[in-house]
Predict the structure of Histidine--tRNA ligase, mitochondrial.
Amino acid sequence: MLFSGFARRITSRTKTPTLRYQPHLHPAYSTRAEYKNKMSTGFEAERARITELAEAIKQLKTDGKPCDVELKEMLDLKKKVGQSTGKKDSGKGKIQLKTPKGTLDHGPSATLLRKQIFNTLENIFLKHGASTIDTPVFELKDILAGKYGEDSKLIYDLQDQGGELCSLRYDLTVPFARYLAMNSQPSMKRYHIGKVYRRDQPVMSKGRMREFYQCDFDIAGAYDAMVPDAEVLYIACEALTALDIGEFTIKLNHRKILDGIFELAGVPADKTRAISSAVDKLDKAPWTEVRKEMTVDKGLDGVIADEIGEYVGLKGKGWEVLEKLKSDDKLTAVKSAKEGLADMELLFGYLDVMGVLDKMSFDMSLARGLDYYTGIIYEAIHQSSAPPGFKTQPAVPAEASSSAPAPSKPKKAGEEDEVDESTVGVGSIAAGGRYDELVGMFSEAAGGKKGAGKVPCVGISVGVERVYSILLQKRKEREEREARGKETEVYIVSMGGNGLLKERMALAKDLWDGGIKAEFMYKNKPKPNAQLDACDRDQTPFTVILGPSEVETGTAKVRRQLGKEGGTTEGETVQRSELVEFLKRKLAEL
Amino acid sequence: MLFSGFARRITSRTKTPTLRYQPHLHPAYSTRAEYKNKMSTGFEAERARITELAEAIKQLKTDGKPCDVELKEMLDLKKKVGQSTGKKDSGKGKIQLKTPKGTLDHGPSATLLRKQIFNTLENIFLKHGASTIDTPVFELKDILAGKYGEDSKLIYDLQDQGGELCSLRYDLTVPFARYLAMNSQPSMKRYHIGKVYRRDQPVMSKGRMREFYQCDFDIAGAYDAMVPDAEVLYIACEALTALDIGEFTIKLNHRKILDGIFELAGVPADKTRAISSAVDKLDKAPWTEVRKEMTVDKGLDGVIADEIGEYVGLKGKGWEVLEKLKSDDKLTAVKSAKEGLADMELLFGYLDVMGVLDKMSFDMSLARGLDYYTGIIYEAIHQSSAPPGFKTQPAVPAEASSSAPAPSKPKKAGEEDEVDESTVGVGSIAAGGRYDELVGMFSEAAGGKKGAGKVPCVGISVGVERVYSILLQKRKEREEREARGKETEVYIVSMGGNGLLKERMALAKDLWDGGIKAEFMYKNKPKPNAQLDACDRDQTPFTVILGPSEVETGTAKVRRQLGKEGGTTEGETVQRSELVEFLKRKLAEL
């Protein structure tokens, strides 16, 4: 629907301005009726008068007579009524002109910059044979239930208005897994750019929002070990390079190796998750702090902690760290560790062939999403956000070292095992890993045979909002003029004459039909300066000037606009018949 | 976040599989605690065993040992527990793998076709100097309140989880007006393509969905009469022509003229809305039926109805209908009618200059959104949905006639004064009009000075879903192969050798770096036919074939794929060093 119901709005307000039932604010009234009944008292006179006025105004309008006086009285009355009830309702008599907490309007130039980011990423995904899907912005509550652990409290639920219980999507991965399971699709290379929703504490200044974009690329399907994984990491490098955000490093680790280390050290199974989430803090906190968390907070035996410490500080160039671990007989004796190391050896070989191995840092302290991922995990770190002492160029220390990174502020709650696209200032600008069981779990939960619906997946999510703020910052540093937000190429200006409206219209039509982006002022007799100002404001590159003489001689004067300061060029007189081609040539030269 | 919390999901399910509290389903238990308490009884043994198994499985995994048996037992137990409680919960033991009622997943080819529609429209809007904005998918409840009259019941509300009350947007117009008022923006040419939400009764077969796209273009600002209005109508013609959906006609009318007619006929002010909504049915029902609704259902004096009937059957070419009305002294004696006719005269003059007047039909029976619009209103009708006897080519009957259109099924409820983008089969494929007061009302409701925040607007909304189904239909009729949904240009195939995985990877990297869309099979030793089938399935135009001899001689064989039936061309052997350029040339020739 376009714009119906406006006058109805007046009417409804007129009839029952005080009766909006807001149970959350009126625990006292358990039913709408009860509330109405209570609220209807008072202001009868005002409401009656408002109804009167509404009728009168309608009549006056019908008669085409002015009704300002009546309208004003009605509006004042409605404010009075609205106000006093408004106080009861929400502490405000007026409606608030704002977007909901944690959400923003993206204006033209912000939208343009985001679109550029999306196009860059999209072109790369397409280059790799990906297709895209578009899933609903809300899912059945059960689909999301239990997927996000303690973060589930951040999920937006839709009100139960009868029918199904739904929630706004929290990410794009669970809907993707649901899609694959629902369609029994055994394999797919897909990307999805869309908004997701989290009732998190917004930090506008940091770009942490409740509504924000995610950009996911995933490869689903049963393939040979580490082959799709290698392509996903190649794509990550390709994407972050194409986005031109500056230096980055991709931290790599393997869930099975971490499992092996914990087993070797003797971490009790029931402590694995707690300990790994402690390990994950090593990129933000020094070992001593993390060790304290393990032993004091989480009651791990100090000896075990120290054994872990020997490993998790280890990071560096892929081959070097790998050799170091492979030569560790204690570790390689653990089956899962051995398997993980074999995977990494394969992966590094592939990344070598693809020429992106030097962007990787094999980092034993990376533990994100441990209980979720089933294979490799990775996190791309942007130079601007790497903690002090964390080198991003060269990608890794000259040789494998086991020095713990320098201290820095600890992560916020709820960020333990994720890159939150809404968070700026945390290291990750992209993250992901292999998750081989999510799709199968959907199939089984829906009653499918165990294992039948299993679809192994590996994927990555680019932190769009993070990339956006980095690019915005770069733009500011370069003192670039804000993006135009519109693409008008030609502004048609009338000088003298009688405004020449129809001549400008006819000219605009010619340009539009010729595929040229053109505007003119919607006035019969616009002032020359008003037109030129609009042209400067929008940074429109060319003006076509029409005056009586041009009309008479079937010509038009074309000027290159050089902006407020730069002024314009002399201008050339062009035959109307040749104008479109002339302008196309000029525009091509820009 | 990418994919955290999966194992946590098991855990949480394990610990409390039966305790999801669903108040709407358990009126009996007024508190979560009470419910928990009740529900916890029974299945203790099973739940205990499930916890045991979960631990065991974790340990087995840590040890890298198989745990299928344990996993199966656990899943079976969870189904058992889940099931019996599930019955209590929602009548189902398994989760449903589906999207919420009235929503759809758009697969790759559907998404591609929609993107083509959006690009076509976007390019046209940009050509006219429009910029785009991106507003949140939900707004404060108060912003939407009272804007949609009785249709407000179709608004999705977010659950009150503490904090503000929000609703999913119902259209893109109210958010736009809110945006203008909030930013005190006096003028803007904007387009917005986005999803909107209506808890309507979905009719999948007709494409009436609860989540669907809208594509709006609006010009806001105080300008000279009918100038932006003319451009919006020009854009409507440009857009519908560019979309290549076939013949269409744009029905035009003016609110003030209708007001004048009602006044002239003597319709009581309080009946205006009811009567105009009856008039609006004339494109679906014969006059006799509409007259009956006016007189019998709505108690209008038969004489008045007949007087209205004399006018509202009138439609035809702009100038002809206009002359007819202008020569009607009774009508022109009514101020508002006179004003409306003056507007139409101006408009037709402008549309004439822009060369689109012949697409218009001045139709006195068009009354949509009467109480909302303040000026011209219009509705674009596609040939496929015009009621029988309604000619679309030529745009209008040879001469102005007052013949009422042939009967046809009456509109569904809630469609009185809107084009519902989610509805297929109803005439409109685009609709809009002038609405000069919505923005001002926001400013005033927010406490601004009367009239201070007034921003006149005129706009149009294209029925994207309607256009989509028309194009899909055309595609089917042309028996076109479904759109690929992916754009892969080259598939790298290995023949013989040892699978040549790394050679294929290296080749892929070269092609990607060269900007060529390329894929290869993620297998060490893929079968030649498996690779060629994938290539045919995706309609990939070229294969690059690598065999031991090619690798040895530093060459590759390029083949044009002609699909399953067509087979392939002979194939040319190309030097690896020249491959990228060679393929680029070949692709350019496609």
Remarks:
- Confidence is low (pLDDT under 50) at residues 1-42, 83-92, 386-426 of chain B.
- Chain B touches chain A through 170 residues (CB under 8 Å).
- The radius of gyration of chain B is 32 Å.
- The first strand of chain B starts at residue 131 and ends at 132.
